[in-house]
Amino acid sequence: MLLIYGATGYTGRLIAEEAARAGLDFAVAGRDRSKVEALAERLGVPGRTFALDDPATVREELRGARVLLNVAGPFSATAERLIDACIAEGVHYLDTTAEFATFALAEERSAAAAEAGVMLVPGVGWDVVPSDAVAVHAAGRTKEPVALRVALKVTGGFSRGSVASSAGIADLIGLVRAGGQLVRKADTAPAAFDFGAGPEDCVPVPMGDLITAVHSTGLRDVEVFMRSDGAIPAPGAELPEGPTAAERLEGRYWALAEVTDADGTVVRSIIETPTGYTYTQLSAVEAARRVLAGQHSAGFRTPSSAFGRGFATSIADSKITDL
């Protein structure tokens, strides 16, 4: 059984609805009893209500599940307790985080998870499935890749949960991989990337690719940038719950990988996808389906190392193009 924690939030509901359409054996869970019960009744699935304050309670609520999909952001408040409970109970852990610290935590817990036979795959949504895949693809086009720059372009609105999860980004601006080490770069000036309509300035951001790309490609020099068609609202700002269905259908997202070879050659590849919320709805459920079907190993994994380099483009309306 799949347990979706945080299922009553904006992204959580989209994922739960997709899990129902996919015919998965799953239950919904969260902290708000009335919301959990209403969603469970609407989808015709079991519901579990629990907070994460007491580790023993969390472990008890996980019993009977084979896979946990954590959609409850900000993940800084949920991931550690759920990862530790999953390791203790032998439950595979997936989440939809975009928070750097959650990837670092899963990497840190890798040995304990491996010993328990548990797989940890943070970032099975738009962060980081497409960027992970296009980085692997672009690196494979070179003979001796030495450096990677990832640039993301997003359009459309943000959910309240996404805004809350972005709160810690400012504290990590300038973080890059250099020689395999995480360091702060003094120069945080924008860099220009062409997503298909001419060069656009992108700002450096501390995304999970600083961890996942190292594992997926073996590269030791990694930087990540982002271009948004609007500023991310400040946490606490008055916002609608999330983008409308029309906004989700109309928007597009891009992730570009620029890989430098030892001889100085630079190759670029780009993946274009539906908006992050639509993509996450599909990719998170597909990841869970695959793990339920037995596609798993033990320890920390990236989406491409867990599910193969073709996983990202198996999601509808997604394609990689070499530039």
UniProtKB/TrEMBL annotation:
Pfam families: Sacchrp_dh_NADP. Coiled coil: none annotated. Signal peptide: none annotated. It comes from the Bacteria. InterPro entries: NAD(P)-bd_dom_sf, Sacchrp_dh_NADP-bd. Residues 3-120 form the Saccharopine dehydrogenase NADP binding domain. This is Membrane protein. It comes from Paractinoplanes tereljensis.
